[in-house]
Amino acid sequence: MLRSPEEALKATLARVAPGTPLRDGLERILRGRTGALIVLGSDKTIDSLCSGGFEIGIDFAPTRLRELAKMDGAIVCDKDVTRILRAAVQLVPDPSIETQESGTRHRTAERVAIQSGVPVVSVSQSMQIIALYVDGLRYVLEGSEKVLARANQALATLERYRARLDQVTSSLSALEIEAMVTVRDVAVTLQRHEMVRRISEEIAQYVLELGVDGRLLSLQLDELTATRGSGADMVIRDYTDPETTDVAQAVAALQDIDQAGLINLNLIAGVVGLSTLDSLESIIQPRGYRLVSELKAVPGAVAGRLVDHFGGLQNLMAATIDDLMAVDGIGELRARTVREGLSRIAEASLLDRFL
Fold first, then answer.
1. CATH number at residue 175
2. Which one of 102, 118, 141 terminates a domain?
3. What residues contact residue 6 under an 8 Å CB cut-off, 6+ apart?
4. N or C: which end of the chain has fewer CB within 10 A?
């Protein structure tokens, strides 16, 4: 299965993260003030680009990488970076491939990565930086201290945005109970969901780049995201026409909005399928998918039949035990569970709003 350049970059970052043998070797090369050009994989294309050098085929070790980097030429490792296949190799990529780099080593690294699709690492002797070239992307590795500083700042931002998401979600639930939800309320909730998702993804990237140095950061991220509850997809499903709106496509469209556009509630409402409504202040009624999904004792398929049967949250909230038992898969015990669960959600939402 073909991967996007971003996915390929993430996989490469995992291979060069602190705590890995390759990162240890790269750090040794930096401390020794030696440049290096390292190809992370070997196939027919790489073989065709190699000229001269030595075929050594030895097990990978950070110390060996450091010593081999003292020689001129590139080092070729296998895909999993468990063996060093070649050393002192001259790489001869297609010179017609455009590159923005100026140094010979970096230009070669970028061209080889583009031509072969194999990640290439370039260690600059003069600038003391490690650069990754993956499918046309360039990424400069930084020390753990700098990455951690940015990650902690992002984590503090995530905590604030998560708290705000909890507030607007609770407010949306209360408004749903009172049948007073507007397009604005839905758009704000989707906006906060997307903001939290983007910041979480940014921190996940930092965790990946930090490797063993990001263990505590990973635990904090898990704590902030594990209890997020229903996502944007459930909100969209609740308020859009199932005959005209594909929820997966609507979620993708929401995620494609640029950072500047994310503050535009009209734009958010439009891309998820609410654009036919007159204004942001228009009242809309939820179907009830989101609230019913919070009833852990009710399986997803049964929850879907429950919502479809009553056609709207207000009808569902007004249903009696007997009404609920008329739905396929709902017995008396489950009907009572649903009735009591919805009552608890209604009470909690209203209390949160007015306290």
1. 1.20.1260.110
2. 141
3. 137
4. N
Chain segment 83-100, per-residue pLDDT in tens: 999 999 999 999 999 988
Asked which of 141, 158, 185 is the last residue of a domain, the reply is 141
Residue 125, domain CATH: 3.40.1700.10
* pLDDT of 33: 86
Residue 242's pLDDT band (cuts 50, 70, 90): confident
Task: Give the global pTM.
Answer: 0.80
- pLDDT band of residue 2 (cuts 50, 70, 90) is low
Q: What share of the chain in percent tops pLDDT 90?
A: 47
Domains of the chain: total: 3
CATH of the domain at 324: 1.10.150.20
Pair 286, 239: CB distance under 8 Å: yes
- Model confidence at 207, in pLDDT bands (50, 70, 90)? very high
Clarify whether residues 279 and 300 are in a common domain: no
- Quick one: pLDDT at residue 1? 46
Q: How far is CA 41 from CA 88, 103, 131, in A?
A: 16, 23, 16
- Domain residues for the domain of 242 are 142-285
Residue 215 has pLDDT above 80, yes or no: yes
According to the 3-state scheme, what is the secondary structure of the chain? Answer: CCCCHHHHHHHHHHHCCCCCHHHHHHHHHHHCCCCEEEEECCCHHHHHHEECCEEEEEECCHHHHHHHCCCCCEEEECCCCCEEEEEEEEECCCCCCCCCCCCHHHHHHHHHHHHHCCCEEEECCCCCCEEEEECCEEEEECCHHHHHHHHHHHHHHHHHHHHHHHHHHHHHHHHHHCCCCEHHHHHHHHHHHHHHHHHHHHHHHHHHHHHHHHHHHHHHHHHHHCCCCCCHHHHHHHHCCCCCCCHHHHHHHHHHCCCCHHHCHHHHHHHCCCCCCCCCCCECCCCCHHHHHCCCCCCHHHHHHHHHHHCCHHHHHHCCHHHHHCCCCCCHHHHHHHHHHHHHHHHHHHHHHHC
